C-alpha cells in the first residue's frame, strides 16, 4: 500500500514578483498523515490551493492518485476532501442542508442516514437543524470537515485546521485526524505553523520556508528528542544516501545543497556513520551535529510565532 | 446540470435579501395603483388638457392597460438595480463569504458551475418580471378593467384599440426579459473580478447610468455612439406600442441585446476558468 497518493515535482508559483512557491517537490504516500509545516506566508496555502486546482501553477507537475491534475481535475476532486483556511459556509443554511447541498455537488446522493452519521462523526448531531450563522468557530470547523468527508474521499487536505480553536477544539481535531488515518485508512495532508501540532499527528513531514523545501522526512526521525540533526557534506551524496538508507538510517536531504545529507541520529552514532561511509570509499568532507529540529524550525519561524507557540 | 442549477436557485431563494426586490416592486406598484384608484380621474384630466382642447374624447381612458404602461415606463428604468443586487453577488458574494474556494474544490467544472449560476440568475430575473407583470397588468385590469390604450408621444398620439393591446404587453415583457438579462449578464461578468458584491453592483449601475445619459442626450457626438450602447436598446420594448409595430428596429435591438448576453457570458467563463482563487 505504499503507492504515492500525491507526487509534486518542481512546483512554482509567482504572484507578480513574489515567488510564493519555489521548485517544490514532495511525495505523500497512501495512509500517511503528512504534515506541512512552515510559518505564515511560507507558501503552505498556495501549495494546497494548487493541489486543489484553485490556483494554477506557473510550472511543475502535480500527480494525485497517479493522475495528472491538469487533465483529471474532476476525477481527482471526486476522491478528495478539503478544508482550506477558515471553514466558511453558507450562513443561512442549516448544518443538515449544508451537507445535503455539498453531497450533491460532490456527485453523490447522501440520504438522511448518511448525513446524520457525518454529523455524528464531528459531534454535531444535536445541531443538525441549527443555522450555520449561530455556530461557534469550532463548530464551523467541524462542519467544514463533515463537508469535506461527505463523499468518503481517499485524500483529505486540511489547511491549518486548528486555527482559532480553543484547547479542547484542538484536541478534538487531533483525535479526528488520527481517526481518519488509523480507523478509516485515509491519507491526510495537514498544514500548520506549529511544530507541536504536526509532531502529534503526522507520520511524515515537510518544512517549507519562503516557498522552498527545507527538510522532509519521517516525523519519528526528525522529532525524536534524543536525536541530533547531523549534517554531512560529501563528495558522492547519492551513493552515500543509498548506503545509509540500507543501513537503516532515516535521511533528510537538504534541497539547494546537493552535497549535503542530514541525518537524525544519536551523538555517539556519528563515528559509526563516518566509519561506514569511509569503508565504502566515500569521501566525507565534513560531519557535524547541528541543533535539534525544533531549534531549527524555531530559527525559521522567528518572532511572532514564538509567542504563539508558547500559548498552546 | 439541472441539479447544479437547482442548488444555485436554492441558495438564491433561501436568502432574505432576494425578496427585497419582490417587496420593493410590490410596494411601488401597489402605491401607484392606490394613487390611480383614489385620484385617477384628476390625473387623467390634467394629462389630457392639451388633447381635449383639440379633440373630443369620449368615455374614460383610465383603464388597466394605461396604468400598466405608466408603471412599465417608470419602473423598468429602476429594475436593473434590483437585478444587479443578485447578479453582482453571484461570484463576488461567494468570494466574500469564503465559500467560493469550497465550491471549487468540488468535482464540478468551473464552466458548468458558472453556467448554473448564470441560469439561476436568469430565473431570478424572469421571476421578478413575472411578478411585475402580474401586479402591473393582471391586478390593474382586475381593478380598472380594460379599454383602448392611448399613448402620448412627443409628436403624436397613438390610440390602440382594447383588443389589440394584450399581445403587445406579452411582447413587451418578453423584450424586457431580454433587456434585464443583459443587465444581469453584465453584473455577473463584473462579479467575477471582485471579492465583494458592492463593486460589481456599483459598477454595473454606473455603466447603466452613464450609458443612459449618453443615450438620451441629443448631441451629435453622442448620437454616433448610441447604436453601440446597449442602454439604447433596453428601452426597445416601447416600439411594440407603435401602430403598426416597426418590427425591424425592435427585433434588431433584441438581437443586439442577445449578442451582449452571449458575449458577457463567454467572457465570464473565459476569465473564471483562468482565475486563481485567492479569497
What topology emerges from the helices and strands here?
The complex is a heterodimer of chains A (312) and B (279).
Chain A: E1 4-15, E2 18-29, E3 33-37, H1 44-51, E4 59-64, E5 67-68, H2 73-78, E6 80-83, H3 95-105, H4 112-121, H5 137-149, E7 155-159, H6 167-182, E8 187-192, H7 195-201, E9 204-209, E10 212-218, H8 219-223, E11 228-234, H9 237-246, E12 251-253, E13 260-265, H10 270-279, E14 284-290, H11 293-300, H12 304-311
Parallel strand pairs in A: 3-8, 3-9, 6-7, 7-8
Antiparallel strand pairs in A: 1-2, 1-4, 4-5, 9-10, 11-13, 11-14, 12-13
Chain B: H1 2-13, H2 18-54, H3 64-75, H4 79-87, H5 92-97, H6 100-103, H7 110-144, E1 149-152, E2 157-160, H8 166-191, H9 198-216, H10 220-225, H11 230-234, H12 247-274
Antiparallel strand pairs in B: 1-2
Features:
heterodimer, A: alpha/beta, 14 strands, 28% strand, B: 279 residues, mainly alpha, two-stranded antiparallel sheet, 2 strands
Please characterize this protein's 3D structure:
The complex is a heterodimer of chains A (312) and B (279). Helix content of chain A is 36%, strand content 28%. Chain A has twelve helices and 14 strands. In chain A, the strands form three sheets. Chain A has a six-stranded mixed sheet, sandwiched between helices. In chain A, strands 2-1-4-5 form a four-stranded antiparallel sheet, covered by helices on one side. In chain A, strands 12-13-11-14 form a four-stranded antiparallel sheet. Chain A starts with a strand and ends with a helix. The relative contact order of chain A is 0.14. Mean pLDDT of chain A is 83; it is low at 303-312. Chain B contains twelve helices and two strands, in the order αααααααββααααα. Chain B has helices at residues 2-13, 18-54, 64-75, 79-87, 92-97, 100-103, 110-144, 166-191, 198-216, 220-225, 230-234, 247-274, and strands at residues 149-152, 157-160. In chain B, strands 1-2 form a two-stranded antiparallel sheet. The two termini of chain B are 25 Å apart. In chain B, a hairpin with a 4-residue loop joins strand 1 and strand 2 (157-160). The A-B interface holds A 49, 52-56, 73-75, 77-78, 80, 82-86, 88-93, 101-102, 104-107, 144, 147 and B 3-4, 7, 10-11, 14-16, 97-99, 101-109, 274, 276-278.
